[in-house]
């Protein structure tokens, strides 16, 4: 093993100890550094063996297969071109995701969900490792049954490691129903963008409470959590009372994130933080 890879294995954190227990650091798009290309296979294998919370985005293709992609178009984030929902999966083969510098990364090929999952069946899995499938949909589109079957087949044998999260709760429920032991997460922030009244923390809580059946995780923008805490409303703690843990997204180094925000997230009792830079965020949170 190269020295750089050995260093990465010992230095990339999967959680930190907060004032109310461990807080998981979810590797957003499988990234361990902000400059990396998304969905690197080496990071998937590393996180699986270290026990990380991992996240990939999935989109249905024209032939109702799932591709591991964040955007509805291949370009400019990959070396390909075209609209994903209009393309068969086979037409995307041979393309790669790009890093922050725009260069394609050969460790980050455009893959089907089945291809991404296949190596995990032969790798040792740490007990805490899990993989969130962040379900992306085009507005007005319903997930076909054949796409759900494709996802279920792709994760067969690894169901207990899977979390399905989405803005689109009804479709996420259908997907979870096809994956025994998978957990369900709901991201209400699209609803918040459409219904400004939900910016009021108590109304947001009630919105989630009405949809809570089967939901074990709520994905909330970090600034929504901070706003609720600053207003004196313990949104995250109230969700915990409902049996729902909170994931704060996306917390990355930069001007938007200061130590006061990090302290607020820890004191609010978030159980997971989504980040593209787990080492840097862990370092800063330990100093809070």
From TrEMBL:
<dbReference type="InterPro" id="IPR030395">
    <property type="entry name" value="GP_PDE_dom"/>
</dbReference>
<protein>
    <submittedName>
        <fullName>Glycerophosphoryl diester phosphodiesterase</fullName>
    </submittedName>
</protein>
<feature type="domain" description="GP-PDE">
    <location>
        <begin position="54"/>
        <end position="279"/>
    </location>
</feature>
<dbReference type="Pfam" id="PF03009">
    <property type="entry name" value="GDPD"/>
</dbReference>
<dbReference type="InterPro" id="IPR017946">
    <property type="entry name" value="PLC-like_Pdiesterase_TIM-brl"/>
</dbReference>
